[in-house]
Structure formats: C-alpha cells, structure tokens
Amino acid sequence: MKEIIGGPGTVSGLLLRIGQCVFAAASISIMTSATEFASYTSFCYLIASMGLQLLWSFGLACLDIYALRRKKDLQNPVLVSLFVVGDWVTAMLSLAAACSSAGVVVLYARDMNFCKTHPDLPCSRYEISILLAFITWLQVSISSHVMFWILASV
Fold this sequence. Notes:
- The protein is mainly α.
- It has helices at 11-33, 41-70, 77-111, 114-117, 123-153.
C-alpha cells in the first residue's frame, strides 16, 4: 500500500495528531484560565468540543505509535472508515464551536465595545483560545481530507 502523508500509522500522521492534541489542550487551558467563561454558552461548547477533539486525537496518536512500533498497516477499509467518520464529526464540532465563540467575541469586542467598558473581562484570552481552536480545526480538516482520500483508494 502506498504511504500517504498524514495517513494512519505514519510519522506524519502521528505528528498531525500530536499537533491536534497540543492545540486543543492549549485552547482548553487558556479558556478555562479566563474568568467568567462559564457564563457564555459558546465558550462552554468550545471547551467541550476541544475536549472531545483532544480525546479523539490522543487515541489515534496512541494507535499511530502502536502501528509504528509494531510496523502494522492501519489502512484497511474498516479502520479507515472509522477514522473518516470520527475526523469529520470532530472537525464539524470543532468548527462550529470555534465559529460560535468567535461570533460572541466579535460581538462583544468589536460591535458593542463590551471589552473596553469592562476591562476586568479577559477578552484577549478568549481570542487566543479561539485562535488555537481554529488551528486545531485546520489540522483536523487536513486529517479528515487525507483519510477520505485513503478511504477512496482502499
């Protein structure tokens, strides 16, 4: 089987999954360190979505490590189908969470100037967390695209 960059059981696929884990964890930690994040539903949804993404990516990173150590081929139709569905579901959830949270931040920071009138609100932490969530989504979308093409070729 031809090795595709970012595919399951490859070093590039492992690095992509590790990147997803790191950026999702960073997004969660920055958002939870901000005060009053729990009062906004979209921020709670972002944390839940990034938590699911972190678990999914960590599980697949462990599977990649196992496949690399044992020199196993993970490109069979059943596994790749599972990877495609999981990546697409987590990608859609991550994008929806990042977009809804970004909408709240734009409304408060730019449209209503809520962040300027309430300096105790950590809008910059919200923005950084959302940026990290978008970077996570970008990496997940690359993974889901690669998995889709592998599924089409298997």
